[in-house]
Structures are given as structure tokens and as C-alpha cells.
Amino acid sequence: MAVITVSTSKRYELVDVTEDVRVIVKESGVKEGLCNVYAPHATAAITINENADPNIRDDISDALSQLIKEGCWRHDRIDNNAASHIKAAIVGASETIPIVNGELAMGTWQDIFICDFDGPRTRKVIVTVLPKS
Amino acid sequence: MAVITVSTSKRYELVDVTEDVRVIVKESGVKEGLCNVYAPHATAAITINENADPNIRDDISDALSQLIKEGCWRHDRIDNNAASHIKAAIVGASETIPIVNGELAMGTWQDIFICDFDGPRTRKVIVTVLPKS
Amino acid sequence: MAVITVSTSKRYELVDVTEDVRVIVKESGVKEGLCNVYAPHATAAITINENADPNIRDDISDALSQLIKEGCWRHDRIDNNAASHIKAAIVGASETIPIVNGELAMGTWQDIFICDFDGPRTRKVIVTVLPKS
Questions:
Q1: Which end of chain C has fewer CB atoms within 10 angstroms, the N or the C?
Q2: Which residues numbered 62-101 in A keep a CB inside 8 Å of some CB on B?
Q3: Which positions ≥6 away from A57 have C-beta within 8 Å?
Q4: Per-residue pLDDT tens for A36-57?
Q5: How far apart are the first and last CA of chain A?
Q6: Residue-range domains of chain C with CATH
Q7: Edge-to-edge strand order for the sheet containing B2-7?
Q8: Which of B38, A53, A101 is nearest to C95 (CA)?
Q9: How confident is the model at residue B1 (pLDDT cuts 50, 70, 90)?
Q10: Chains B, C: CB pairs < 8 Å
């Protein structure tokens, strides 16, 4: 188990943690297995998508903001961040990625992001590598 | 492998199964590894979010109902629950959570829910604990 | 680790890969464990839902198309497929399914799909089976 810590600077921000995850997989020495990437937060989530065009990060964030309006939910009376919770529920707290020949078996255009839907904050990403046996 | 059984009483209901999952992890004796939580249903899903304010459960459910209208889909002519299937596809059938020092490495504000999008029904949650090696 | 290759013929298409995954699980000889199903693509995703009524596949696809409009995003100026990326982020690249008694512990009405949101293309699904220990 390893922890990546990221600091976001905007209210909505997707941070690319792919390189950190790659280093953790490499240092684990695991050749075949699974790599779990987990966001231990109720207003953040993990997604896998393209970062070759970094605009996609803002497109994903904007799309979710168009779908989930702010300020109109029960929880807004308490914390005013209900939309952040709902977005996290839609995107999901975990992704699990195969490891093949000691590397993440991701596609050419895939990167791993933590999505902060309630920044700016310090966020953690927990990475767990399990060998095939 | 362990099975949690829950009975829902409403058409849309998020049921907190965190304590049951914690007991299963503890009884497994696994100190480091992964815990997979799986909903074996086509109109239910697993999500991780906050339950300190239980209103969030209804906010998530309401948000999905606003996004996915009922009664207007092809499958409604057969079963009249297409929206339930679409919501399950968006939220997803599984989440996988790290285990560290014999405990679920979840955030302070995270709880595990099964989302019943087609209740009331009896639903199952399958919990699988894998040790690191 | 095994790879399933599918060819889609439409722009939006959900392809049922359940039988291929079942064969991979059977041939692995694993009796208890987890099966990870992963889409190594930035415009495709994995979902689990019903295929007894194949209309549900189109309902899921249509619902996502209603939620995420085309042609209005930053990335559309580069690749004209931003909506495909956003849909993949919402549905997610991976699902992980328990294996019990040598079989996928899926519900009666569950099938595994790769969702191609930017077809027609050749797509891969990576299947990884991890024994309990």
C-alpha cells in the first residue's frame, strides 16, 4: 500500500497521478496482478481518461457540473457541497487496473486522475498492488 | 466470500452496509489486501459516499432520478424499469477498497452503500477479501 | 491475463463479452478469487447490466447521449469526440467481479459489456483472474 498526496488549487480539478502510480507498481516488483487506485474521500473520485489533450479534464468536470446543479439539495443546508458528493458517487471511488509484465496494462490514451469536486484541498490516493499469486 | 442480505422498503433506497463489510474484513484476518464489494443485480449498484448526513443518500437518488426519466425507454415496454437499469449502469456494480492494518482504508466521511434503484426488494451484496500474498 | 478482442460496427455499441470472460475464468482453474475486467481505451468503458432484453443496451447508450451533448466541448476542436471521453469517464474503465466455486458470482440478470462510445473500432478487454491465495 502506498499513498500519493496531491494539492488542488481550484474548486473542480482533475489531477493526473499516472506517473506516481507507475513508480509504485515498478517498486512493488509485481509482474502480473492488479493495481487498485482508491480515493478515500466523499467528494473526490478516481477516473481513467486521456490527458494528451488536457482540455478533456475540464470537459469532464464541466459536463458533470452541467448535469448536477449546485445549491438545490438537502445536504446543501448543512455543508453546501451536495453536488460534489453526487459527482463523486457517479464517477466512483475506485478503479482497478491489470499489471502485465511489471507494467500497468493501460491503453495508449489512458491516464489516471483523481477528480477533486470540492477543492482546493489536499487529497490522498491509495494505491494497492496485488500479485497474481 | 461472504454475502450481506438487505431488504429495502422504498422504490429508491441507499442502504449503508459499511459495518457488515467491516466485520467480514475483520473475520477474514487479512491485514493487507483488497476488499471487493459487489452487487449481483442489474438494477442495483454499489457506491461509496457520506452517511454522516443521511440526506446525501436521498440527494444522490434524487439527482439520478432527475437525470434519467422514467417510462420513455425501449425496455419500459417489457419491464417498466429501464431507468433503474440505466442508473445501475452509471453507478456501477462494484467498488474495491484497500485493506491496511486489518481495516478498510476508507476516508473519515466514506460509507459503503448498496443502491436499490428498483425496490422494494431483497438485495445481496457479495464481499470478497483478497490478501496481498 | 487474457485479452478479448471485439469489433464494433456502430458509433455507440455495447458488446456482451460475458461468455468470453466465463471461459477465461474456467480455464484459469481459480475456484475463489476476483475477476477484473478492464477496457484499455479512453472512449470505451465496462458496465454490467441485463442482456436478456437486448434493448437495454440501446437504452443505456441513448440515455448517456441525451445527458452528454456532442460538439460543444473544448476537445471537440481537436478530435470531435469529447462526448465519447466524458461518457467513458462516467461509466468507468473497470469492474471487478467475485469468483465463487470456480464461477463468476454474477446475478441472473447480469451480463458484462464493453461500451464503445466512439466506434466503429476494434476494442480490447483485458481480463485478470486473481486467486484468493
A1: C
A2: 67-68, 73-75, 78-79, 82, 85-86, 88-90, 92-94, 96
A3: A13, A14, A16, A49, A51, A113
A4: 999 999 999 999 999 999 999 9
A5: 17
A6: 2-131 (2.60.120.460)
A7: B2-7, B122-131, B33-38, B94-100, B103-104
A8: B38
A9: confident
A10: 94
